[in-house]
Write a structure and sequence with these properties.
Layout: H1 2-27, E1 36-38, E2 42-45, E3 50-58, E4 61-67, E5 74-76, E6 80-82, E7 85-91, E8 100-108, E9 115-122, H2 133-139, E10 145-146, E11 152-157, E12 170-174, E13 182-186, E14 198-202, E15 207-210, E16 217-220, E17 227-229, E18 240-241, H3 244-249, E19 256-263, E20 277-279, E21 285-288, E22 305-315, E23 318-322, E24 345-348, E25 362-364, E26 378-380, E27 387-391, E28 400-401, E29 412-416, E30 425-431, E31 440-448, E32 455-461, E33 478-479, E34 493-499, E35 510-517, E36 536-546, E37 558-562, H4 595-598, E38 602-604, E39 606-609, E40 612-615, E41 634-636, E42 644-654, E43 675-681, E44 691-695, E45 703-712, E46 717-721, E47 732-740
Parallel strand pairs: 2-9, 13-16, 18-19, 21-23
Antiparallel strand pairs: 1-3, 3-7, 4-6, 4-8, 5-7, 8-9, 10-15, 11-12, 11-14, 12-13, 14-17, 15-16, 19-20, 19-22, 20-21, 22-23, 24-36, 25-26, 26-27, 27-30, 28-29, 29-36, 30-35, 31-34, 31-36, 32-33, 32-35, 37-47, 38-41, 39-40, 40-47, 41-46, 42-45, 42-47, 43-44, 43-46
Keywords: Signal
Domain DUF5689: 132-328
Signal peptide: 1-26
């Protein structure tokens, strides 16, 4: 028993000693040594105001102290931090006759002995033996000037030789951020100097003057070896904001400047080397100059507004800005100055010719090939900023966002694939130039291949972040009929969705509409998964309009008046070819109108249009353009309830398919009849006959026609129709039928 107690005691003591040992070892753990290092220990700044920076690499808290005779001329972006950080030093112009210097000491807060120092020196703007750029320009104000003095000039390179968008063998130099501080240096051979490097030029024998070819003042030294790199630290050139008046004055020639601008609407389908016209918010216009062989010359122009940077110059006698790099116009992606839609608005996919990608009203940024769709968009060329983009599935490698012309007039944007269902979408963006303060209607063309989704739903937003679903919220908003695969000029479907917004849609805001698959049901209803390569066609147009409400006043003295105010569906034909094939998008047929909508009218093949009626119909959604069939329409009024001599007047307009080209093979290519038949029913005549052919309808606007009915009875009514010959088409529109006595 005693031995067991003794052994237990020693085991406990040993364990306690081990714990004490462990504790003493912990106190002896070596912490990392504090360290500070700078990426440079000397900065020699140019004489003009600029910002330079250096990096502090540290593993501790640190702070900066500044010493010198006068420390007020340099402002630090930070004076303390923890760990690695960049410190920017902003300086003003040194207008004194001598250089000035500071010492920046970066020291650890907990151990001042851990420190590094940086010597910061700024050159003088008025050093003896140097000539300023403004003074040099003054010498050549009256013509070419040859420098005879033993003087030098210093300037910072602000153009980019690497991007090749400045004059051959030339560099733009700038000595300050003030007017007349820029000049173009011309050399015999290309000098590969980087933007932000300061050059020193021996001016003895140099010639200064305006080059008639470039239009700018140039400095040509005796030889290229008179140009050397100065010892100053390379800076990052910052574009100087100027107004259009300042740009046009010529005082900022050869300087790196910036203005807020946008490409004019008429140039939105061009590339940068077309030397496009840009405009300010006040419609002050100048040229964005880009050489074809620059690194961005063949790029599409930016379609938005924003900051444009570049070298100020002259081209064909006009003010120009010459971007140095692609970054100089990258910010031109904000809503346009003239941007924003007003309702009704049509985003048209109509093509200008029977060539893929050749939009009449939109610019297509893609290549019509299958592959990456990064950066591919369709943008309106009307200055509104409206556009279409897409997020599609790349999981199967079958990715595409193209722009095709279509013989049937259903010009379209094929998009594939859709395997990620509601994670894939077409996004339509509409900057707003008016507030949408009530329900609005969204109409568009959408069709699909057999392996593509059949069921679709729509969401809307005002910030592209939070999305809202219009009614119904528990099912798809539209469904492509089973087996109705797009192709061969048919199965291009037309859709309309009315939306009562739950969010404010205010002027200068943006309306976003996103269309996504509702579920995995395929058009062919095979039960298989959505196919790799399953494709949709966003076709013809997308229309945003207020839900129509009409209230036409009855003319004084009218015994009968039909303004068709009860008709509110279909698209307005008067939008013209912007609707492409959806020019034929009618509302419902008279056979399904309720009594209130009919208002006593009757007939066959009469369709709704917003505020007027279409008489005659051609099926264009499920029938190919080479097989169209005309359905002659007839519309009959109720009895007028008046006898004697009556005056009948009405507005009429004829239909013409404006979405196809001469090579399309569309049966209705030449246009529908421009004459209609008015028939008196129940007693009475027009010009001594029961029927009257009325000619002179146009394809683009309503015209007013007036006829006299003699011998009318209380049962007299009128039937409106047409009498086409075989193979002819006879769609037409009627509005404001009025009978007076």
């Amino acid at each position: 028993m005693k031995n067991r107690l003794s052994n237990s005691f020693f085991r406990t003591a040993a364990a306690f000693a081990l714990l004490l040992s462990a504790g003493s070892c912990k106190d002896d753990v070596a912490l990392p040594m504090q360290s500070i290092a700078l990426d440079t220990h000397a900065i020699l700044a140019p004489s003009f105001g600029t910002t330079l920076s250096f990096e502090v690499r540290a593993n501790c808290d640190w702070q900066i102290s500044v010493t010198g005779d006068d420390t007020s001329w340099a402002q630090l972006s930070r004076s303390e931090a923890t760990g690695t950080a960049t410190v920017a030093v902003a300086i003003g112009e040194n207008a004194t006759s001598a250089s000035r210097s500071l010492t920046l000491r970066v020291a650890a807060k907990r151990n001042a002995a851990v420190a590094e120092e940086l010597n910061f020196v700024q050159a003088s703007a008025t050093s003896e033996g140097y000539l300023s750029v403004p003074d040099l320009r003054t010498l050549a104000a009256d013509g070419d000037y040859t420098v005879t003095q033993e003087v030098k000039l210093r300037g910072i390179v602000v153009s980019s030789v690497q991007d090749n968008n400045y004059f051959e063998n030339c560099l733009a130099l700038q000595s300050d951020l003030k007017p007349r501080c820029g000049i173009t240096l011309r050399t015999d051979e290309t000098l590969y100097r980087n933007p932000g490097e300061e050059l020193e030029i021996d001016l003895k024998g140099a010639v200064v003057g305006v080059n008639a070819e470039t239009g700018v003042m140039e400095l040509k030294p005796v030889s290229d070896d008179r140009v050397v790199r100065s010892e100053t630290t390379q800076v990052t050139p910052e574009a100087l904001p100027v107004t259009y008046a300042q740009l046009a004055s010529g005082d900022y020639e050869s300087m790196y400047v910036s203005l807020d601008a946008q490409v004019v609407v008429s140039d939105l389908n061009k590339v940068l080397s077309d030397n496009v016209t840009v405009q300010t918010a006040d419609d002050e216009r100048f040229t964005l100059y880009a050489r074809q062989n620059s690194t961005f010359g063949i790029d599409a122009v930016p379609v938005g507004s924003g900051r444009l940077c570049g070298i100020a110059g002259v081209y064909d006698g006009n003010s120009v800005v010459m971007p140095c790099t692609a970054a100089d116009f990258a910010a031109m992606n904000a809503p346009r100055f003239d941007g924003g839609i007003t309702l009704p608005y049509v985003l048209s996919i109509m093509t200008r010719t029977a060539t893929n990608g050749d939009g009449k009203y939109v610019y297509y940024s893609g290549s019509n090939s299958t592959g990456s769709i990064d950066g591919v968009s369709v943008t309106a060329m009307d200055g509104t900023g409206a556009n279409i983009t897409a997020k599609l599935s790349s999981s199967g490698g079958n990715l595409g966002f193209r722009y095709w012309t279509e013989s049937s007039g259903h010009h379209n944007l094929p998009m594939k694939s859709w395997q990620e269902l509601d994670q894939n979408y077409a996004l339509l963006t509409f900057p707003l130039n008016e507030t949408i303060d009530g329900p609005f209607r969204f109409s568009f063309g959408w069709s699909a291949s057999g392996s593509a989704p059949a069921n679709w739903y729509l969401r809307y937003s005002n910030d592209n972040v939070t999305w809202y679903t219009p009614a119904p919220t528990d099912g798809p908003h539209f469904v492509i009929p089973q087996g109705k695969t797009v192709g061969g000029g048919k199965n291009f479907f037309y859709w309309t969705i009315d939306i009562a917004p739950q969010i404010p849609l205010e002027r200068r805001g943006t309306l976003y509409i996103r269309i996504s698959p509702y579920d995995g049901t395929r058009v062919d209803r095979s039960g298989a998964a959505i196919g790799n390569g399953g494709e949709i066609r966003l076709h013809s147009c997308a229309v945003v309009e207020k839900v129509p409400v009409f209230n036409t006043e009855k003319p004084a003295g009218a015994v009968y008046f039909e303004p068709f105010d009860n008709l509110t569906t279909g698209l307005d034909y008067r939008h013209g070819d912007k609707l492409a094939a959806m020019l034929n998008f009618c509302g419902s047929d008279i056979s399904v109108w309720d009594a209130a909508v009919k208002n006593g009218l009757s007939g066959t093949h009469v369709r709704q249009r917003p505020g007027y009626a279409q008489i005659g119909f051609v099926e264009t959604q499920t029938v190919a353009h080479g097989s169209y069939t005309n359905n002659t329409g007839a519309l009959m009024t109720p009895a007028f309830g008046a006898s004697g001599t009556l005056t009948l007047s009405f507005d009429a307009m004829a239909y013409k398919n404006a979405s196809v080209f001469s090579s399309s093979g569309a049966k209705d290519l030449k246009g529908d009849l421009k004459s209609v038949v008015v028939e008196v029913i129940g007693g009475g005549t027009i010009d001594g006959a029961a029927k009257k052919v009325v000619s002179g309808l146009t394809y683009t606007e309503f015209n007013r026609f007036s006829l006299t009915i003699d011998g009318a009875t209380a049962s007299t009514a009128v039937r409106f129709t047409s009498e086409p010959a075989s193979g002819e088409f006879s769609r037409w529109f009627i509005d404001n039928i009025c009978v007076t006595k």
